[in-house]
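Re: [ENG-882] Designed sequences occasionally contain unexpected residues at chain ends

Forwarding the minimal case from QA. Structure tokens:
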């Protein structure tokens, strides 16, 4: 069983981001609660760490150099859970076309793990690239 060596929510957030940027799905899985909830900018929801394991693998296949760069991070420690808010940018390459967009993230950290990961981003650049794919 994975044991988080830090209870600092901001540090958990940073380690989760580092795992995203390394495309380290195994570490991402270890940092997610079993009931982990992922929400994207369009309101799509994926519940469960096991489902997100496949989701991250699929996204890293589509965008092999996906990277998020939080520039400002705010932490609010609540009772039983902490909320992390961050702003920055997301970037990558899909079908050999580079893209970059402003982004923000909200993470709920519970017991040293990410219980919720919410992404706010203008995905128009990504959708334009994907729309050019042959059907």
């Amino acid at each position: 069983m994975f044991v988080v060596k830090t209870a600092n929510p901001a540090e958990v957030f940073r380690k989760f981001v580092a795992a995203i940027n390394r495309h380290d799905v195994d570490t991402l899985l270890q940092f997610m609660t079993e009931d982990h909830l992922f929400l994207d900018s369009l309101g799509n929801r994926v519940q469960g760490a096991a489902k997100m394991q496949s989701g991250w693998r699929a996204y890293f296949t589509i965008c092999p150099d996906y990277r998020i760069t939080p520039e400002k991070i705010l932490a609010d420690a609540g009772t039983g859970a902490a909320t992390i808010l961050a702003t920055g940018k997301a970037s990558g390459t899909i079908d050999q076309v580079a893209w970059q967009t402003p982004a923000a993230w909200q993470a709920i950290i519970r017991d040293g793990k990410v219980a919720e990961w919410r992404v706010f981003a203008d995905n128009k650049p990504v959708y334009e690239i994907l729309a050019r794919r042959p059907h």
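QA comment: On inspection the terminal residues look reasonable. The chain has one domain: 9-131. Proposing we downgrade this to a documentation issue.
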